[in-house]
Structure formats: C-alpha cells, structure tokens
Design a protein that fits this description.
With about 400 residues, the protein is an alpha/beta fold. It has 18 helices and eleven strands. α3 links the parallel β1 and β2. The protein is globular. The model has no long low-confidence stretch (mean pLDDT about 95).
Length: about 400
Amino acid sequence: MSRQRRVLLMNAFWAIPAVLIMRILRPICHIRISKIFSERIGHFVPDSAELIVRMSLEKSNIRDFFYLGSVSNFQWEKMIKQKLRVRGILARIIGEWNRYIPGGTSHRIDGSLTLSRDSQGLFQRFDARIPFTQSEDEKCKQWLKEFGWKEGDPFICLLVRDSAYLNSTSLYRGDSGFSYHNYRDSNIETYLSAVKFFTSQNVWILRMGRVMMMPLPKNMEKVIDYAFEDEQSDLLDMWLFANCTGCISTASGPDVIPWVYRVPQLNVNALPLTHAYSFTDSIWVPKNLFWQHTQIPLSISEYLEHGYLETNQYEESGIEIRDLSELEILQAAKEFWKRISNQSETNENNVHLQGKFWEIYRSWSGFSKLHEWIHPNFLVANSWLQSRERELF
C-alpha cells in the first residue's frame, strides 16, 4: 500500500464526514476542491493562471480551494497563493475522498479546460499577471547588473531544449526516460549566428535552463549563459521570462511564462505545427519534415495530418525530422527582431503566403479544438514560408 493511500485511510474518520457536510452545504455555499498540476512548470503556470481568470468570473457563492503535488517552481507557488486559495494536506485529503465517494463531480473542477494552452485567449483578454514585489524586482535587476546589464537594456531569453533536464529529475521514466520527446531537442550551436545578430543590435541574450548539455562559447559579449551559472533560483527563472523583451524557445516548458506576462515569442524548431502557439504574440517555425524513402518534403497539409507528439510516431510513419539550419534560425531571428522593435513592413507576397497557410490551417479537422482564439499577431515565419513555398503548398 502506498504512503498516500495509508494517509487517506488514516484520516477517513473525519474526511468522509467533511465531504458529506460540504455536499449538504452546496445550496448555501458551493465548495470545490481540486488539484493543480504543479509537477511540471509547463502545466503549473498556465493551469493556475487559467484558474485565476476563471475564478474571477465565477458566481459569488462558489468557494474554490486547491492543493498541489510536487512543486516545480516555488516562486510561482508563492505568487499564486495571492490569488488562489491554495491549501495543504487537509485540502488534499478532503479532495481525494470527494473523488472516491460517488457524486462528487460538482465539488471539483478541471485544472485546465484548454489543455494547458490558453486556447481561449484568457491571458490576453483578462489580466492574469501577478506582480513581483519591489524587493524581488530589485534583487533580479541587481543580478543582471553584475554582468554589465543596465536598466532599460533590452534582453531576450533563449531556451533551447535538450533532454538533460528531464533525464536528471525524479520524473525520469526508466530505461527510455523522456526519449519520446526527443523530437523537440535541438543543438544550441545552430543558434550562435542568431545570438551574435542580437548582440550586434545591443540586445542581451540570456540562455535559459536549469540543466543543459552544452554551454555557449565563453566570453561572448552581452551573453549570460544562465543555464551554467551557479546562482540560479526559482525567482530568477520566473522574473527573467516575465520581464524579457522577447523569448526565443523551441516550445518547451518555461516558455509558458511569457504567455501569462504577454511577452512576444519566437518558437523555432517547434513541433508539431498542429499545436502552434496561435493564442500568443508569436512567430512559429517548425522543423523541416521529409518522407524517409523519397526525401520529398511534407506539405502543410501533411504537417497537419502527421502532427505527432512522440518521436516514435514520426519514425513509424516514415517521416524524417531535420532541425532548421543555422541560416534558417538567423532569418527567423531577424524577422522576430523587426517585429518586436517595430520595424516590420507590409509585403504583398508575405500577405499572400500567410493567406494560403491559413486557408489550409483552418480547414484541418482539429483546428477548432486547439485554436479557438487566435492572437492577431500570431503567424508562421514569413522567412520559412518564402524559402519553401513550392514544397509546402
């Protein structure tokens, strides 16, 4: 018998009556108790931010209480407690017994109604941002200043996924680990031209991550390889992503923080195209996909038909995944910089290509489920569509 089950049984004598009383009181005060998926930051942040918005829109007689599992970021836990009634083991025990005793559905709620995606645009239509305290702001700014950053200098958070972090955690899944997610990995070395481009524009680059395989080259001007710094913290993780000028990511974990704080994103080497972050101010550039036997590139329609979430599914379907080249990443970075520095120009060919893309994208059978609300600034990179127009359409 697991420890969790023993705890529930030991507390049954008071928890079961508590559940029954809660149900009796429903006409007067409707109490709901639910768990927030706190084990992975990619769910913890958007799910709790979604709950903050949803709770603000609930009827006045509803009282919601929450409990957490293992906490992936203690700073975010501290912050959401300002907005949500997050309780400890007593709430968990009552909540679990409510699940076991039939008839408790109305006394719990789903942690997310949008698959942790904000597909309804709640973070844009309602303000889910939780402010940092003055002392937290000052502490994080002081940390940046020690590297030569000056207040007001733009900085971009760069998050390039590899398998080092998940394979180092207690979440490691036996022999295969998290290899089913390896299709999302990419090589930090292919981002160096983009990094140098941004620093040439006097923009700081902070390479993010807690555990990474390969460091950036030493002594790069205006570059902080945070992933290899000794002074890491949950506060810095949250604050940097929430306050950066822009975020470049491979669609991985902590890049959900910019969703909540309305920070523009560039998602490169990002798969699947079906799950693009259409609800954010973002540019999406997927990896290049080819049929293994013919080496013919996949079209947009085929990208959507084969929008898999596991590496082996691509292999079994005969699809080869190729990372974007260093040049393709650089081109996307330049496009992103024009966007966030207000230098973008209208181009008739780009408008035409975007129109063709959206015609196909909206006709995909799964579109409405994942893309209920579209951010007006979302697009697939013009540079990618231009370079592969004949193949994609």
